[in-house]
Amino acid sequence: MQGLMMEVPLTLTHVFERGVGLHPRQQVVTQRETGPPRRATFAEWGDRVRRLARGLHELGVERGDRVATLAWNNQEHLECYFAVPCMGAVLHTVNFRLHPDQLAHVIADAQDRVIVCQRSLLPTLARVADRVPSVRWIVAFGEGEPDPPGLPPVVDYEAVLATADRPLDWPALDEREAAGLCHTSATTGDPKGVVYSHRSAYLHALTLLTTAILPGGLGDADMLLPVVPMFHVNAWGQPHGCVFAGAGLALPDRFLDADHLLQLLASERVTITAGVPSIWGPLLRRLDREPVPLPHLRTILCGGATAPPSLIAGFDRHGLTMVHAWGMTETSPLGTVAVVKHDLAERLTAEEQLGLRASQGLPAPGMELRLADLTTGALCPHDGVHEGELQVRGPWVCRGYLNNDDRTSFTVDGWLRTGDVATIDSEGYMRIVDRTKDLVKSGGEWISSVTLEGLLMGHPDVAEAAVVGRPDPHWGERPVAFVTVRPECPEAPTLEVLRAFLAPSVARFWLPDALMVVDAIPKTGVGKFDKRQLRRQLLPATAPAPEG
Ligand code: ADP
Questions:
Q1: Which H or E element spans position 28?
Q2: Is 199 in the pocket of ligand 1 (CB under 6 A)?
Q3: What average pLDDT score do residues 30-43 get?
Q4: Ligand 1, atom nearest to 325 Cα
């Protein structure tokens, strides 16, 4: 027997209309270098969203076209977040920290038609201007130097809005249509595009409103400060969640230092904030030096890399609750959240609870997790001991990549292979213990070990090279290169020599921090570099196993 309920499409258009219609007085606030932040009500912001959609339409953007953004977290970026998908186009948020070759690749891969670019980032775009023929217009906003030469035609964002005399009628969208696109780093080769649908973004946003994710949920009494960049997995879906819930947004623009963040947290009475551990370490040290009362702040969401227990406990000392979460670009990104179950909170000591809070957590409602043995592929028990590759399934997990037939990230029965190695205990808490993907994560950004190894092995003195991540108190991980030297080479190259050799080919933050010249690089049974062994070598002798 079939259910008899309506199948209303789950679209971001509904999210937008609900937020603006029910909460017109809610605020979008953007930090400025000096002076008070810029403010708009949801009513004013919503009007600009509609005019931006009209303006983009006048520039020739049609249903299904990709519109890219190169911007920090600010009001204009939030305008694009809704104008583009609600008009039926696809928002492609681009990481402006990518090396120019990767930047050119992601724009070409998406076939972006228009790029909305913050003026201060136009020079970044200018570096790839001759490699992005799909781009017809650049819509520039904010302050900056005069437009650099060589770009496709640049129009002013405010002029586009000013000439949009009437709002665009939103098209009736199918919930399966693409709403957003975000590229994620591949172990080898170029970044891969993850295409979010309206349905996945809607369901993901709805989950953010629940107490399974944020203690106390997310509602119209909240003011949320996403430090996580809006080019990074839709700022973890928080802009969508806030507009859905009628919660305000305090956007930091490019001012991510502890002083500016504390100022915004205090002045806007922020209740929830979210970012990677490398943001929270300096903020905690600043609070330890000089406490700032933040009575409204009830949740600091921390994800993207392991949150050490010391960081969580450090914020506890200030009466601030850090909530640890795990996710991926492929999972929109909400996968697991380390909330303590009610009965465990009543039973366990604070110390024991810290162990759970520092785990990667419980699956978000809608997500399923399982572990596959690293050698046999058989499913492992959830006993907190067996380590296996984490595989996930859910309505906001991708089932393929843009322009890419490679199925190696998916199992035959349709689960996503995360490339993370984890345990899951009998209560359902997941802990990441290692990674099979050949990537190093530094400050929330990926570095491809395989790319560095390929380049290093191109140096005349280097025979073999293996790059792994070493735990780093600030960045989470930093790359370390193990190399063997060619027999004919009289003297091993130094770190400085190899960094200078790599510098033209990779982004600066990719350059290895340390070099280990060794006689041989350990290999696995099938002759691959044994990276687990190399990583273990890098742990200080007294250090406990990596926190999960
Ligand atoms: P994001 O950084 O937004 O989570 P990415 O796709 O860039 O998305 O990275 C996802 C990967 O980052 C995961 O597969 C995992 O390796 C790592 N990661 C994310 N969150 C955590 C976490 N809380 N603890 C440990 N590793 C994490």
A1: strand 27-30
A2: no
A3: 95
A4: 23
